[in-house]
């Protein structure tokens, strides 16, 4: 344990330093205007009002400097951390920071803890800037958790800590009373593997892992475990790494209202509106002493209002009175919080909210009987310990064969920060503490089978409700080739659709693949598939940006995401671009098997993969996927789309700069001559230009569709028309060469 604490303390420092450095570079690299264009700052706002919220937090409401004007476009959202900076401060040093509680077109509200700077309350008409911040709260809480782990072990023997670090072995389930024989399930629709997992979780004394591959109903199983624990009289803490995951658990639990009392911790701004009534703040508001607290807040607001009108001396005196009242209010609120938490069956929160700094510090150690951590394979191990230190038993759920938590620092990741608790425990204790769910309710069996065989020992089976479902079965979708196949491979091998050679190497894109994705998406939509039922995903952010540029304006409901950003989601149809296409066979971070697994298992009825099989098959794992698609799916060569490709207008993000290849002086002169010749023959009339291009495209299409293997354009073409032939032939994947001298210049096309 001591070695773990020391090592992870160092790794967390590396991670935090890298995050701060990247954030600082962004702040330094961009001007205020550039940050505004990126949505990372709201410039020149005025303080509209200030009032007191729960826990004595001050709520500051800001509006646009020009009264009545809307706030500029921005990326702020409820729950973000905002730094409040005086517009006159060129150093951009914040007065204080807080959590965005709400944002409308004209007003943004920021909640600041009561230990913030009082000077902000005395508005003297100064303009402010609001900056989005990198948040250090999580880092601070993780460090304190490490220290708490060490201290807890020093104070007294902790069986769970000893077990999870390998000092002791888990108690065999056979040694415990098995409640499965008399178990009455609240959810009668559980399958056999889910029931077995529930029984196993209840019968284990110290630890249980529920391994939930994609679509197997992991969350449904966890909910049954929690309900059974409550029925047995246990107090349960349920945590997950993200607010969305916690909200998903709350939504499912409250459907059993009357059987279980639920409280959701966390800032209300970070919670879905439909479950805000179950937040701690809302539950406290319904308590008997809330009216007393509300009167005290009004008194505080009155004192603040009076102080604004008084002189500086009075302000100082009133500030002392306000602080006394705030302390009195805090004590009352803490009592209300403690009573609320003690009265509930299940407390739910993100892992970081379960720390010592949160509301749970009002409860005694090990108040909870069981700590449940969902999606533990997506969390840092240290984060999981925030919950595990609060109970003598834990139930962990996740899938270590999907993507782990995102880590910014490569040194920290390589040093062991990326190793999750779930992975470590499986290596330490093996199958003695795990049950895997085996029936999946998402994918067509053909989509499922590859990941099942490669990663899940062939144990997954498709439920009969999804086993054969296809896009054509969706109401309003026509039955055609695209909608009747669950698997499609569009192969660009040998078609010259290479990835872009960009100046910035931090991401990759491929324009040819982007065009093919667009064509296939439009085919699906024209077949009746709703854009909202389609996801376009790629491992590379630059490719995502390229696809958004080409598709978003036509289809607002179409979701275009990175693979990492789409984890945990699903769509009826998924179209995926692998991007990598190069002569070296380099696949980059496509080599991360878990990323490929996530990408493939998002699709319910239709999966289309666009890739260069010659490049990506250099990696054995991806080759197995390409081979599977080739054997079990429909395969199309990119050349089959040549006619559609020739008609597409390419769009490229403005920030993409290509590497310029160095050419000899002779080549430059030749190129200049060719360009000049082309320009001299280019028609001035745009209509004539379009007409000539259409005739060239028509001629090339006719040859492409024929049985002929070669075709020669006559010498009567102008240099402009010859350039058009080369351009169109390239898009059709045809071999093209100039023949004859300058006076008798012809172009020959050949099919490859």
What does this structure look like?
The chain has 752 residues and is of the alpha/beta class. It has four domains: 31-134, Beta Barrel (Elongation Factor Tu (Ef-tu), domain 3); 139-169 and 191-261 and 345-435, Rossmann fold (3-Layer(aba) Sandwich), CATH 3.40.50; 445-647, P-loop containing nucleotide triphosphate hydrolases (Rossmann fold), CATH 3.40.50.300; 690-750, R3H-like domain (Ribosomal Protein S8, Chain: A, domain 1, 2-Layer Sandwich). Helix content is 39%, strand content 17%. It is built from 23 helices and 24 strands. A seven-stranded parallel β-sheet has the order 9-10-8-11-12-7-13, with helices on both faces. A six-stranded antiparallel β-barrel has the order 1-2-5-4-3-6. Strand 4 and strand 5 (107-112) form a beta hairpin. Helix 5 (192-203) packs across helix 6 (218-231), helix 21 packs across helix 23 (719-731) and helix 22 (686-705) crosses helix 23. The radius of gyration is 31 Å and the shape is globular. Residues 659-672 have a biased composition (Basic residues). It comes from Ornithodoros turicata.
Give a quick set of tags describing it.
752 residues; Rossmann fold; 23 helices; alpha/beta; seven-stranded parallel β-sheet
Can you lay out the helices and strands and say which pair or pack?
Blueprint: H1 2-29, H2 32-37, E1 41-52, E2 58-64, E3 81-86, E4 96-103, E5 107-112, E6 128-132, H3 137-155, H4 159-164, H5 192-203, E7 207-211, H6 218-231, E8 236-240, H7 243-253, E9 262-264, H8 280-285, H9 290-309, H10 312-342, E10 346-350, E11 370-373, H11 381-388, E12 393-398, H12 410-417, H13 421-429, E13 434-436, E14 439-440, H14 445-455, E15 461-462, E16 487-491, H15 511-526, E17 534-538, H16 541-551, E18 559-562, E19 571-577, H17 593-600, E20 603-611, H18 613-616, H19 620-632, E21 634-637, H20 642-646, H21 665-681, H22 686-705, E22 710-713, H23 719-731, E23 735-739, E24 746-750
Parallel strand pairs: 7-12, 7-13, 8-10, 8-11, 9-10, 11-12, 14-15, 16-20, 16-21, 17-18, 17-19, 19-20
Antiparallel strand pairs: 1-2, 1-6, 2-5, 3-4, 3-6, 4-5, 22-24, 23-24
Biased composition (Basic residues): 659-672
Organism: Ornithodoros turicata
Family: Belongs to the DNA2/NAM7 helicase family.
């Amino acid at each position: 344990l001591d070695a773990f604490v020391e090592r992870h303390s160092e790794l967390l420092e590396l991670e935090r330093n890298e995050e701060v450095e990247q954030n600082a570079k962004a702040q330094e690299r961009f001007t205020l205007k550039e940050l505004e264009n990126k949505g990372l700052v709201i410039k020149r706002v005025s303080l509209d009002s200030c009032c007191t919220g729960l826990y004595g937090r001050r709520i500051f409401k800001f509006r646009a400097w020009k009264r009545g004007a809307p706030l500029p476009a921005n990326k702020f959202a409820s729950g973000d951390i905002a730094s409040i900076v005086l517009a006159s401060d060129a150093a951009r040093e914040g007065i204080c920071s807080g959590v965005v509680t709400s944002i409308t077109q004209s007003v943004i509200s920021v909640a600041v803890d009561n230990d913030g700077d009082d000077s902000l309350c005395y508005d003297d008409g100064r303009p402010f800037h609001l900056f989005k911040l990198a948040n250090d709260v999580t880092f601070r809480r993780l460090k304190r958790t490490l220290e708490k782990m060490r201290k807890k072990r020093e104070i007294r023997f902790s069986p769970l800590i000893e077990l999870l670090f390998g000092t002791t072995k888990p108690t065999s389930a056979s040694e415990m009373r098995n409640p499965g024989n008399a178990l009455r399930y609240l959810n009668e629709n559980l399958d056999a593997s889910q029931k077995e997992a529930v029984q196993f979780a209840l019968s284990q004394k110290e630890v249980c892992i529920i391994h939930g591959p994609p679509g197997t109903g992991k969350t449904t199983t966890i909910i049954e475990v929690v309900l059974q624990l409550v029925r047995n009289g246990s107090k349960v803490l349920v945590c997950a790494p993200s607010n969305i995951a916690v909200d998903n658990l709350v939504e499912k639990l409250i459907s059993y209202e009357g059987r279980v009392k639920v409280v959701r911790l966390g800032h209300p701004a970070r919670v879905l509106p439909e479950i805000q009534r179950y937040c701690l703040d809302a539950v406290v508001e319904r308590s008997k002493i809330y009216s007393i607290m509300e009167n005290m807040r009004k008194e505080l607001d009155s004192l603040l209002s009076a102080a604004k009108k008084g002189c500086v001396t009075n302000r100082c005196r009133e500030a002392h009175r306000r602080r006394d009242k705030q302390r009195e209010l805090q004590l009352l609120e803490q009592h209300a919080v403690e009573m609320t938490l003690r009265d509930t069956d299940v407390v739910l929160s993100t892992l970081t909210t379960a720390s010592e700094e949160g509301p749970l510090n009002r409860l005694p150690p090990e108040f909870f009987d069981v700590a449940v951590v969902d999606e533990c394979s997506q969390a840092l191990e240290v984060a999981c310990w925030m919950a595990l230190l609060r109970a003598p038993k834990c139930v962990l759920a996740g899938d270590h064969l999907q993507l782990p938590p995102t880590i910014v620092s490569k040194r920290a990741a390589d040093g062991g920060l990326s190793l999750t608790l779930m992975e470590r425990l499986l290596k330490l204790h093996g199958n003695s503490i795990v049950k895997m769910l085996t029936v999946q309710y998402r994918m067509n069996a053909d989509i499922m089978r590859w990941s099942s065989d490669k990663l899940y020992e062939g144990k997954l089976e498709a439920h009969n409700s999804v086993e054969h479902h296809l896009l054509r079965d969706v109401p309003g979708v026509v039955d055609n080739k695209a909608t009747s196949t669950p698997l499609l491979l569009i192969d660009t091998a040998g078609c010259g659709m290479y990835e872009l050679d960009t100046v910035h190497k931090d991401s990759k894109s491929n324009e040819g693949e982007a065009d093919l994705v667009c064509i296939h998406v439009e085919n699906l939509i024209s077949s009746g598939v709703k854009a909202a039922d389609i996801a376009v995903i790629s491992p590379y952010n630059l490719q995502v940006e390229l696809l958004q540029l080409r598709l978003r304006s036509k289809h607002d409901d179409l979701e275009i995401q990175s693979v990492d950003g789409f984890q945990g989601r699903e769509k009826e149809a998924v179209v995926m671009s692998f991007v990598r296409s190069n002569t070296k066979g380099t696949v980059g971070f496509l080599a991360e098997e878990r990323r490929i697994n996530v990408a493939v298992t998002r699709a319910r009825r239709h999966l289309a993969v666009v890739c260069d099989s010659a490049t990506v098959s250099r990696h054995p794992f991806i080759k197995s996927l390409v081979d599977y698609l080739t054997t079990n799916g429909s395969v199309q060569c990119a050349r089959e789309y040549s006619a559609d490709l020739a008609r597409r207008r390419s769009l490229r993000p403005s920030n993409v700069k290509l590497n310029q290849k160095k050419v000899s002086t002779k080549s430059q002169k030749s190129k200049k001559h060719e360009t000049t010749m082309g320009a001299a023959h280019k028609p001035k009339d745009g209509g004539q230009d379009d007409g000539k291009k259409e005739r060239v495209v028509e001629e090339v299409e006719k040859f492409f569709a024929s049985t002929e293997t070669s075709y020669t354009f006559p010498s009567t073409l102008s240099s402009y028309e010859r350039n058009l032939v080369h351009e169109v032939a390239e898009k059709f994947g045809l071999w093209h060469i100039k023949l004859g001298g300058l006076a008798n210049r012809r172009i020959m096309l050949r099919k490859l």
